[in-house]
């Protein structure tokens, strides 16, 4: 009887996790190691939009511990929005920047330009750094482009110092 | 029965002394927990050093304490061998997950000195916790309440309250943290107490060292998310519990009783295989996947709360999906299951026009083939409601969060 109780508890626990996973599956951004290691905890703690050109819509940027997403709506050439992503080392181990890779969508609009600045090469426990991602409607564009969207995917990889 | 290794028997000490020492250890742990919870929340960096120091001092105290007590540590070589094999299987499964979900570069340095700095505190904490558990458990084999108390205290000693407080305002993060960390912590600690009580502290230490130090040693680590971590840890703890339970049972009982339990044993094995398959299915490791339907846009074909099972298709088939098929495609972080009403070929690109059966107009945007996740196969009524309720609950909460 006790064995059956144990089995029922385990089945219920795993089913609850499966239901949760199904509910959040579409929002998941799998990013490896942060969830399994207690002491290593470099994570995103904030994202905000700044220097928004007049009439442009920065959307509602969102973030989790390991991912940040935003959708910018630009109107005319020269418009830009800068997103500030704050990263904190909440763990106990010194972190050093291994690489920052930003990849632009191959078939995306050529009129949309991305530039990234900032981000500290090292992060001591408790320290924060900010990555600035500037999205710009190319001011040299003279015609309305046929493709109007572009997705950028960025990976910021911190490792132990 | 296998051989008994390292039998250590120390005499002296009566019931009164035993109870007094129990009280001392429990009081130390409760006091420590009080201090450590405050430190954990206020200064996580300082907490880590204090935690290691505490368990080192506890270890020294217990070694002194054992010398003046009557405690018999028995270490059955057969069970140690089982645990070494199980630990090896655990590591193989962990690496195999990486082959299925991909690997990431380990954030930990692999210089010998740094590895030692990383693993030494972990080893001290594991030994400290497990020797404490052993001393209390072996002194109070028949006092079930005390066994429950010590298990709860040792669970609390390993909870990262800092992380708990950080995730608390976001219900979704809190749910994921509970599933990935708290539930496995509870199931593992119940297992450790059970193994310590019935077998030996050494097999628990072997298992914990193999499981918890692997991440510091491997240059690459599997891309495990909260669901993989939580479900596999929970399931593996249960499997190990039943393996040892039946090993102990078989040694104590006759052949007839063993036969009676054969069917029960088989039913547990089938349950574990089903649970393992469910986890793999949820992770999308099979050719078929599922999504819960949020709206009635495809009514009456399928409705809100139904679960649609769809089949993943290869790149060449993506260009030739017949009209009237129902496809599952993604826009941003949302999945949509709608019917193809038209196929448009433009500059060697294939685009699909889709529409919900219950909608008046077609979908605003054409679907590119790289957005398509699969083709509808069948649906199961109503079973998607729990995940929809959870999704809506967390999204309502999210709508109230303001990002400054």
Question: What keyword list fits this structure?
Answer:
heterodimer, A: 161 residues, mainly beta, Immunoglobulin-like, 2 domains, four-stranded antiparallel beta sheet, 1 helix, 9 strands, B: 404 residues, alpha+beta, Umud Fragment, subunit A, seven-stranded antiparallel beta sheet, two-stranded antiparallel sheet, disordered N terminus, disordered C terminus
List the topology elements.
The complex is a heterodimer of chains A (161) and B (404).
Chain A: H1 2-24, E1 42-50, E2 62-63, E3 68-69, E4 80-89, E5 95-104, E6 112-118, E7 122-123, E8 128-137, E9 152-160
Antiparallel strand pairs in A: 1-4, 2-3, 4-8, 5-7, 5-9, 6-8
Chain B: E1 4-9, H1 15-42, H2 44-67, E2 72-76, H3 77-101, E3 103-105, H4 112-139, H5 144-158, H6 161-167, H7 171-198, H8 201-217, E4 220-222, H9 226-252, H10 255-282, E5 288-292, E6 307-311, H11 315-318, E7 326-331, E8 334-346, E9 349-355, E10 367-368, E11 372-380, H12 385-399
Antiparallel strand pairs in B: 1-2, 3-4, 5-6, 6-11, 7-8, 7-11, 8-9, 9-10
Query: Architecture of the largest domain in chain A, CATH level 2?
Result: Sandwich
- The amount of beta strand of chain A, in percent, is 35-45%
Envelope shape of chain A? extended
The biggest sheet of chain A amounts to: 4 strands, antiparallel
Give the SSE string of chain A: HEEEEEEEEE
Note poorly predicted spans of chain B. 1-14, 397-404
């Amino acid at each position: 009887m006790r064995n059956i109780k144990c089995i029922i508890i385990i089945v219920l626990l795993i089913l609850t996790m499966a239901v949760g996973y199904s509910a959040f599956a579409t929002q998941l951004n799998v990013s490896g190691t942060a969830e399994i290691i207690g002491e290593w905890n470099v994570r995103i703690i904030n994202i905000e939009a700044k220097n928004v050109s007049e009439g442009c819509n920065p959307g509602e940027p969102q973030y989790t511990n390991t991912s940040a997403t935003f959708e910018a709506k630009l109107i005319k050439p020269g418009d830009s929005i800068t997103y500030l992503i704050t990263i904190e080392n909440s763990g106990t181990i010194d972190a050093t920047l291994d690489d920052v890779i930003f990849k632009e969508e191959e078939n995306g609009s050529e009129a949309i330009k991305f530039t990234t600045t900032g981000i500290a090469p090292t992060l001591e426990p408790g320290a924060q750094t900010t990555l600035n991602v500037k999205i710009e409607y190319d001011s040299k564009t003279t015609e309305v482009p046929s493709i109007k969207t572009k997705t950028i995917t960025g990976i910021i990889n911190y490792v132990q110092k | 029965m296998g051989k008994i290794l390292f039998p250590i028997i120390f005499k002296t000490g009566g019931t009164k002394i035993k109870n007094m020492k129990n009280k001392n250890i429990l009081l130390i742990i409760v006091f420590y927990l009080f201090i450590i919870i405050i430190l954990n929340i206020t200064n996580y960096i300082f907490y880590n050093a204090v935690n290691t120091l505490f368990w080192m001092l506890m270890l020294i105290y217990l070694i002194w304490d054992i010398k003046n007590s009557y405690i018999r540590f028995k270490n059955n070589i057969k069970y140690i061998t089982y645990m070494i094999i199980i630990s090896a299987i655990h590591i193989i499964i962990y690496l195999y997950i990486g082959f299925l979900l991909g690997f990431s570069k380990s954030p930990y340095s692999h210089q010998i000195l740094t590895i030692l700095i990383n693993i030494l505190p972990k080893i001290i904490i594991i030994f400290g916790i497990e020797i404490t558990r052993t001393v209390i458990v072996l002194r109070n084999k028949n006092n079930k309440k005390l066994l429950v108390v010590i298990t709860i205290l040792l669970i609390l000693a390993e909870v990262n309250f800092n992380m708990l407080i950080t995730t608390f305002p976001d219900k979704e993060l809190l749910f994921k943290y509970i599933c990935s960390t708290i539930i496995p912590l509870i199931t593992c600690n119940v297992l450790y107490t059970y193994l310590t009580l019935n077998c030996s502290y050494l097999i628990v230490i072997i298992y914990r060292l193999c499981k918890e130090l692997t991440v510091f040693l491997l240059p690459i680590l599997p891309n495990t998310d909260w669901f993989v971590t939580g479900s596999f840890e929970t399931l593996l703890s249960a499997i190990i519990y039943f393996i040892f339970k039946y090993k102990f049972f078989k040694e104590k009982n006759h052949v007839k009783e063993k036969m009676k339990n054969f069917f029960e044993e088989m039913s547990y094995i089938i349950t574990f295989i089903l649970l393992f398959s469910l986890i793999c299915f949820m992770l999308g490791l099979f050719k078929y996947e599922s999504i819960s339907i949020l709206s009635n846009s495809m009514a009456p074909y399928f409705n809100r709360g139904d679960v649609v099972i769809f089949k993943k298709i290869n790149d060449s088939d993506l260009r030739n999906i017949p009209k009237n098929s129902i496809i599952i495609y993604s826009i941003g972080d949302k999945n949509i299951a709608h019917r193809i009403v038209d196929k448009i070929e433009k500059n060697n690109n294939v685009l699909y026009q889709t529409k919900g059966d219950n909608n008046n107009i077609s979908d605003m945007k054409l679907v590119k083939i790289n957005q398509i996740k699969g083709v509808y196969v069948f649906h199961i009524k109503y079973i998607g409601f729990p995940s929809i309720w959870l999704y809506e609950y967390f999204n309502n909460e999210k709508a109230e969060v303001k990002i400054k």
